[in-house]
Amino acid sequence: MAALSGLASALESYRGRDRLIRTLGYCCQLVGGVLVEQCPFRSEVGTRLLTVSAQLSHCRTVLRLFDDLAMFVYTKQYGLGTEEEDLFVRSLSVLSNIADQLYYPCEHVAWAADAKVLPMDSARWWTLSTALWGLSLLLGVARSLWTVLRLKQKLQNPTASVTSPLSQGTRRALRARMRSEVLTLLSNLADLANAIHWLPQGVLWAGRFPPWLVGLLGTISSLLSVYQAVCTDG
Length: 234
Known about the structure:
By secondary structure, this protein is mostly helical. The chain has 9 helices and no strands. The chain has helices spanning 2-11, 14-38, 43-63, 68-78, 87-114, 123-156, 158-163, 168-197, 211-233. 26% of the residues are buried.
């Protein structure tokens, strides 16, 4: 009953509902892709699951029409990241915020073009929005990797252990933050692989992933995100 109450509480928030829709969408794509490719006698079920996945993805696209203001407020509050001690992390975060802020209007234009609201070709706008998303993920990967290396250096620094030894509480906090950054790194890498797949053919492995692989990478990323959210709430 407690788990059911927790799920209902999570679904009351936009972020919680988005995580569930994202996870379900990618799971449907994973299972549907496997059934279509590996189980011909189940291909009809697989096709239906792929359709459900596409509709859930479209649902998230429509809901993101209202994300611009929240992203703008966050970007404005972060500013140039003057509260961030590490200059490299600060620079990456500022660039990532700019990429995220530009991503939303580009995706909105692409959506409007697909919906025939705007008389233009949507392809270039989808490409631009995907490239901005990929750039944000790449910056996130670099930030997480750098943070993990710095945290590991702090934990293993022999000089610090002699001159000013870290308390057990501080060590636990550093290890917890490092685990969180590793999970974020893995999640961003999985999403980055998919983002490159959705770019125009000719860019690395663009267009080469079968549906089940896209679903697998998206499912891994989504489950890691859900796990981090549960740990944070807990």
